[in-house]
Amino acid sequence: MLKPLFAPTQDKPLPIPTLPSLMLVLAIAVSACPPARAASPASPATSADWPPPPKLSPPNACAGRLTGSHATFDVGPGKKYTELTDVPWLDLQAGDVVNIHFRSEPYRTKFGLRAQGTADAPVVINGVTDDKCQRPTLSGDSAVTAKDMRMSGFGKVIEDAGLILIYKLPNDPLETYTPRHIVIQNLKLTGANRKNRFYNMAGVPQNYGNFSAGIYAVRVHDLTVENCEITGNGLGVFTNTKGDSPGEYSANVIIRRNLLYLNGNPDRYTEHNLYVQARRALYEGNFIGQAYGGSSLKDRSSAPVIRYNKILASARALDLVETEEEVYKNLQPDPLYPYAWVYGNIFINDSAAPAGFSVNLVHWGFDNTIERGHNGTLFFYHNTVISKVAQKAFWYVVPFQIGRDDMAPAGATVEAASNVFWQQADTEWRFLSQAGTLKFTGTNYVPTGWYPTNPTLKADVRKERASLLTGKDPKLAADGTPRPGSPVLDQPDQGPSFTPPGAIGENLLVQHQYKDGVGIVPRPASAKPGRAALGALAGP
After folding, report:
1. Strands 396-402 and 428-429
2. Distance between CA atoms of residues 271 and 280, nearest Å
3. Which helix H or strand E contains 147, and what residues bound it?
4. How far apart are CA 194 and CA 267, in angstroms?
5. DSSP code of 393?
6. Is 131 a residue whose pLDDT tops 80?
7. Residue 313: which region, alpha, beta or left (left: phi > 0; alpha: psi -120 to 50)?
8. To the nearest 10°, the Cα dihedral for 190, 191, 192, 198?
């Protein structure tokens, strides 16, 4: 029996307001789709190259047809395959491309992937948008199970777990067969939610489980999910690392330039927009909205890198905790397991938001098993953190929780540099819940009247070598860009105080920024050497 990552968040979310409807307006430019082109090789991160350099985003979400280096499958109106159910998903080979062409009606097929692509010839599941950049929709609501899944029994034990299932055939080696080098892009994935039914392998209607996902991977190496809209599922993307054998782990998961929002279940806190456990994970250029019940992003990986995203907080904005491996340790031996990098992100925590808010915004270290906790540094730099939590909703907010209560792994530290912390409401601001160490370095903009922790307690908050600019208004525009005369402009630039062996320092520099509706764009440089704007954005 598979064991999903059911580790609960320790702090239960606050009650979620009930709204009759919710509209999310995403500003995406309109332009014609590009012509057909060959599928380009993926750029997976390897153990010797972490993190990879950022990938600049195209100006819009339009995407054209691709040609595979091995074979090309086209699905849609007037194509060889009119429905997804007839595609030979389980026989895809390195270099294959499946083009899913836009149509006004959703495709209602759930399917499996077991492909083993290569770095030079990945397997690509590619959405072809219309001339308004609309992605083709794959819906789990009333979806049929793909024909080859029904015939082979692929994923029988997890058929209620997702819309796209990444796993193995019953006769593939249980402990060693790993799908790899798979790219899923330019699609809208929705409806894999317990409220909805699908037609299972026997053709019988069945509800999805609580822990169902738009993409559910039991084990995968070098998975890239890019330019997708993922909403309305139990989880958006889930990858597992069980550790029941030396080979049972996921690795090199890249989540890039997606729209992820309103996944989860309101009455539970174990489902999230993203729930990834892997040897190395990268999140860049995404809009990560709220999740019902759970965290906006939960990660149990080694060396997670979270950069240039816009993140709306729910139960937590970031929950970066320990691997759940119990028998074989595949992630902990990674020399970068103790570390994480969070930079260039815009965080918004709002008590008026429909899916709750965070009391503890960023969680680092562990939530269940302290012995497996991250015992190194979370490098938190050039982020803009905006709190709109009203005191009537909760008395205080805490940007950083390390471990839980008064327990943290020895050495677990958050290093904060070049950030903007903007308190827009009347709550008490406590920088650290209690355990662990928070080190301010360089220059940070912080709220007037902040506390290290609960005023009746003590916490290890260090600021001896830091400059803290205090104030109530950093003079930022609505999008977070500093306005003329802002105190955060042209401040001494400071990043991580050190780079652990095995990390690529050049790829951890802040040279880009997030842009709404686009993703990653170049960051305007300061005219003064050694100076930069604090926070995530330097200019429009």
Report:
1. parallel
2. 21
3. helix 147-152
4. 12
5. T
6. yes
7. beta
8. -130
Q: How far is CA 62 from the centre of its chain?
A: 22
pLDDT of residue 49: 83
Q: What is the pLDDT of residue 47?
A: 52
Predicted TM-score (pTM) of the model is 0.93
Return phi, psi of residue 150, to 5°.
Answer: -65, -40
Nearest-angstrom CA–CA distance, 86 and 268: 36
The reported pLDDT for the residue numbered 539 is 85
- Give residue-wise pLDDT tens across range 146-155: 999 999 999 9
Element (H, E) at 148: helix 147-152
Q: Is the pLDDT higher at 7 or at 34?
A: 34
Reported confidence tier of residue 260, pLDDT bands at 50, 70, 90:
very high
Q: What angle do CA 382, 387, 389 make, to 5 degrees?
A: 165
Rounded-to-integer distance, Cα 508 and Cα 472, Å? 30
Cα gap 435→58, rounded to integer Å: 42
Which of 431, 413, 436, 419 has its CA nearest to residue 498?
413
Task: Give yes or no for residue 5 having a pLDDT over 60.
Answer: no
- pLDDT tens per residue across span 33-46: 444 556 644 434 44
Structure tokens at 278: 């892997």
Parallel, antiparallel, or unpaired: how do β-strands 519-522 and 466-471 relate?
Answer: unpaired
Alpha-carbon radius of gyration of the chain = 22
Distance between terminal CA atoms of the chain? 51
pLDDT score recorded for residue 17 = 33
In the chain, the amino acid numbered 467 is S
Single out the residue of 221, 120, 125, 123 nearest to residue 178, CA to CA.
221
CA nearest 387: which of 340, 430, 354?
Answer: 430
Distance, in Å, from the CA atom of 172 to the CA atom of 378, rounded to the nearest integer, reads 39
Q: How far apart are the C-alpha atoms of 339 and 121, rounded to whole Å?
A: 31
- The answer on pLDDT for 399 being more than 90 is yes
- Check if the beta carbon of residue 166 is closer than 8 Å to that of residue 215: yes
**Phi and psi (nearest 5°) for 186?**
65, 35
The pLDDT value recorded for residue 12 is 35
